# Entry
Amino acid sequence: MKKTIFTLFLVLLAATAQASDVVPDPGEPQITIRHGEEKTFYEYRQNGVLVEIKVVPKIGPVYYLVPADSGEGWIREDKSQLLVPSWVIFKW
# Structure
């Protein structure tokens, strides 16, 4: 009886561990890729808010569009300003 309960406990523990691996990190941006005729757009969203657009033209250098401080329009930048934490503080 004890072996059955212990085995059941291990199976449930393993299932719980697998389920937790599926949940995406809320701090990571969601990326939507749209293909145009001459450019490809990568839209980066955090918490549902569009924070940056990466523009990859077929000819020419890559550039980024970031929201203006006034809230109206976009500003062109040569480098990304998106900061995504990449360290792990705690992991089982």
